[in-house]
Automatic annotation (TrEMBL):
Residues spanning the membrane: 57-76, 88-109, 129-149, 156-175, 187-210, 336-356
Keyword Iron-sulfur on entry: no
Residues that coordinate or bind Zn(2+): H110, H256, H260
Superkingdom in the source lineage: Eukaryota
Protein name: Uncharacterized protein
One Pfam family per UniProt: HlyIII
Record GO biological process: intracellular zinc ion homeostasis
Alphabetized GO MF terms: metal ion binding; signaling receptor activity
Organism of this sequence: Pyricularia grisea (Crabgrass-specific blast fungus)
Matches recorded under InterPro entries: AdipoR/HlyIII-related
Amino acid sequence: MGKHAQGPAKRGLLSWAEIAPWQRDNEFILTGYRRASFSFITSARSILEIHNETANIWSHLLGAALFAALCARFFANAELTLHTKVQDAVAVGVYFMAVIVCFLLSTSFHTFSDHSPEMHKFGNELDHLGIVFVMWGTGVSGAHFAFYCDASIRNIYLALLTGTAIGCGILTLRPKFRQPGYRTMRFLMYACLGTSLFLPLVHGVSILGWEKLDAAMGLESFLGLATINFSGSAVYAMRIPERWFPGTFDLIGQSHNWMHVLVLTGALVRLDGLIKVQMAWQVVGMESNLGERTATLLCIFGYGGLAAPFNARSSLSEDGVTKGTVAMMPITAKSLGLASALILLEVLLAIVKLLWPPLPRLHTFGRRPYLLLSGSSPLTSTAT
């Protein structure tokens, strides 16, 4: 122990034996502790110094900066403005905000944990509040896409998630509820938050099945996030690897560092799945609008029969979404190309008619265009 304490002591750092009781958390971290500063400026300056909180500070500070940059890029996407529903953008934005706030609160705690006993306690409460907030943001964004076309069920889960998160936030910040007599209440409230996080998934799988729910809300990335975060929590709880080699990982490589890295990794995994789901719903919306607009134009120009497949697409899309299916009946290049050609030709004919009114309408030439769109034949229809 003496060998490990000697180096940090030269940099003004303390050993486990030298710090105050309120600074003690992990007995396997033997050195690298900052002195109690009682100064916000001094604590803030320690961000640029080497001690046993440096890696904890920078892992989530850089994580917050990364998510802020990704959030700005997401909302700066040109297609987002044109085609994305506001609700979808808000759902993804809530997740971005929750992760950023969580990482910033964590960074603040590790930065100012050396300030004083009061600040250490308050910072720890904010750190836990950030965990509650990111759980809420993750659950809200997931429930939004899981029950995309069932607003009643979605709103029930959103209310449940919000209510339990508020309850956990109150229990986290109110000193009264930290007393031993409220231990059972605290356990039940956090258990409710955890349950409300996964209950929509169980419900969704029971209704849609695994594959359809994964397509609708990114189930695999959600479970990936949960698995990675659980692994990080387990590493932190068991104090691995410093438990096996006390003093070796004082400055970097300790369990708390690994937990931060895993939390950041899990957040990125979920973000990837969430954005893919948002983009999939965006494509559905774009294709649905394309079908509706094509059908409208065909009807305007007198091709009501040709509009049927595109109108059918719209109804099938809504039905498919209700069943949790993202991939709908495709509009083929052949049908869309022919419809576009007919519309363009009709516009040209309208212009030419200004010069030559007797020009006949294109659709009086026969039913051949309809055959190309529908794939049916008047002959086979008559025969049946």
